Amino acid sequence: MKKDESCLEEIRRIGLRIGYFRRVRNIKQVELAERLHINKNYLSQIECGAGKSISLPMLIRVARELNVKLSAPVDLDDWFSDGEKTPTQMDFNEMKEMVKEMCQLNAELDKTMAQMNDYVMEDACHFEEES
Known about the structure:
The chain is an all-alpha fold. Helix content is 67%, strand content 0%. The chain has 2 domains: 1-80, lambda repressor-like DNA-binding domains (434 Repressor (Amino-terminal Domain)), CATH 1.10.260.40; 91-131.
């Protein structure tokens, strides 16, 4: 692979990773574009790897908005040490399923937290009655 092709491939991967993190965080493309003060079409072209490069200042802003380390969109090699696929190795349906599973886990966590809160409040009411 030539240097230019290699560089373009890495730019494409960065875009795919940005899209991955955006989806995992359940942020719509238009919402992220608004936060970054850029055109949604530009963000779309970055995410789908349409040859649009991204500047370092923009990459920093994206990382901040997605609440990831600056290195995350650039290199995920150290993320999956147990043989799992990285987001760039997954197809869209695999990523979609993973995000769906994460949403279910978050919903279960929210339910558990609500139950714990109810229990704490109930216990606090009993404590006040006894006082």
